[in-house]
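Can't attach files on this board, so I'm pasting raw text. These are the components:
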Amino acid sequence: MKDSLVLLGRVPAHPDSRCWFLAWNPAGTLLASCGGDRRIRIWGTEGDTWVCKSVLSEGHQRTVRKVAWSPCGNYLASASFDATTCIWKKNQDDFECVTTLEGHENEVKSVAWAPSGNLLATCSRDKSVWVWEVDEEDEYECVSVLNSHTQDVKHVVWHPSQELLASASYDDTVKLYREEEDDWVCFATLEGHESTVWSLAFDPSGQRLASCSDDRTVRIWRQYLPGNEQGVACSGSDPTWKCICTLSGFHSRTIYDVAWCQLTGALATACGDDAIRVFEEDPSSDPQQPTFSLTAHLRQAHSQDVNCVAWNPKEPGLLASCSDDGEVAFWKYHRPEGP
Amino acid sequence: MASPFSGALQLTDLDDFIGPSQDCIKPVKVDKRPGSAVTKIHIEDDGSYFQVDQDGGTQRLEKARVSLNDCLACSGCVTSAETVLITQQSHEELRKVLDTNKTVPPDQRRLVVISVSPQSRASLAARFQLSPTDTARKLTSFFKKIGAHFVFDTTFSRNFTLLESQREFVQRFQGQTDSRETLPVLASACPGWICYAEKTHGSFILPYISTARSPQQVMGSLVKDFFAQQQNLTPDKIYHVTVMPCYDKKLEASRSDFFNQEYQTRDVDCVLTTGEVFRLLEEESVSLAELEPAPLDSLTHSMSAKELTSHRGGGSGGYLEHVFRHAAQELFGIHVAEVTYRPLRNKDFQEVTLEKEGHVLLRFAVAYGFRNIQNLVQKLKRGRCPYHYVEVMACPSGCLNGGGQLKAPDVPGRELLQQVERLYGMIRVETPEDTPGVQELYRHWLQGEDSERANHLLHTQYHAVEKASSGLNIRW
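---
Top answer:
Structure tokens for the assembled complex are below.
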């Protein structure tokens, strides 16, 4: 495991503040970071170093908690504790705030674009998940307000190919939503975590979902469609999601983020013990009961809690991380050879 | 557990933890006096507080008062457990009044009047498999059996809400060149919508909202003013109960605007949801179907309430339909026989237009449910609302689907709602202009349409709730 995760560089992304989240653009050329200083910074490479290309200030009145790029790469959404979500339009190196989505009662915790590019999801401490639709004139309308969770909703993520939405909450559950007629409904609740679920990540195929929690475990859930070979019972025409693997004993503190590399299938975690870990599925493992091995464990990746890990969508093994220490770090991951 | 209040009111911090730093919507007002140094507070033996100034002068301090209604509308610190307790008290409250009536001397008894909404009646009709008329008669029988004196139908008071809404719209439409922000007119009968508007959008949205009182509150005026006079009673001698399809109507009844200062009495003393009436029936071990039907009561002598009547335009009151048809006639001389609704984004957001020679003369909409209210308000804020009038209701599918309506364990929600809608729609429709008793009341009780009395008794006002912003209400 030695040298499987190598530091490429660090930048003081949000000085004197926390860096909360990172998002690579779909082309993998830019990294957006956001933080407690209410700013969003866009990073790009100049030669071997990472430089700040743009600073998006004047958008939010409070901490920016998450950022997300649209599938086309021309828009950036930012979710803030000021209860709004800003939509920024990219014009070369400039970003202009074209719309502000209002409506949540309090802090917006997460925002995510659907793969189709027409839908956006936001979630908030007000316990609700909102689905928005954008039309050709860049007008956003609320399509659904989902009040399924009983506590603060921390994260939302879309399925890579289906119009399926997942949310994670302080109520210890993960909920899945789909469209039904003219509204959205919660069709499954994944229970098992013993504390707040902080983040979610779908695997490249979309058949599995990873969740990470304050209970210091990562759980892998698998989708079973009605009529599946394994005989897993389904209700009506909705799939069932079952927990097929739990990674426990690896993390000593809360796991704040999990990222599933869409190129290699490697799983990275961001932990409150300041470390970054990478897991890989054992090649011979049973798809219904997979086993994962820890292939990288970088202690003191940052000097404080690691809040986010993000795999570059185009360059295999390139990983970015950020922390309460305000810094963003870039890493190169090599799967370790041999025993 | 799921909150019984409408979705619009649910999006507040209701949970079972009282966060000590949550904002209360009733911040204590501090009168800042110039040049004041440190003031001391002295507590007397009787528990009263006195502020002691520098020069030794004392001033008795008023107790900060937070009423139950403030709490229900805010939920800033009250936990969900308490709100559930509060909402479940009402039928016990009624029972207490009925029991008291039995024990006190006649001059201390209160006249108990129950006003039943047609939506609650339809829900009970569906549950007991009765026609709306049978349900009305048997409910009358039941309430009188337990000690009520009169049982009315809020369809009657709704006539006034509809007429006032019609008149108000035409006035605002015609006056739009004079003052800004007169259009769109937003319907006001739904307290879930009103509480949300007051709390979240405050002074921005309130000028658009119709000032017409809801049928419940018009009934409050009718019972405590007109009917009280007829019965030679002061308003406080009447105990007025309404039966409503939702819990939000309890908030509406307890608004200070509907409190009679002179007689220290509310226009509506108690609101029971349909579910609470069902519980009352169970507690009395009464099977509604087996009761002997009683004749229906009417508020005025000229009305013969031999049969039930209803209004066109759906189960939430028909505001759009009535305002639209009246406006088409009054403003453009066009008679609209049938109003055509066009669903837009979803079935709870529908549009109605009046067109002539390719021109759109009127564009109205129906917006039910929180997501549609959101979109409407955001459009308004951006100055992009194309509507002249919007019938806004907090509950998806409207009042027939209110949070206090009966659920059936063996019937899926949608099917049950369809049954209730069918039963509601069965009743013969009458226009407010033609309803016996209404014009008479305008003449004699209100002293004319658009009179000062009419405005006082049939209209109301709204109050923005200003929240003190504080960085303290962060919960992790």
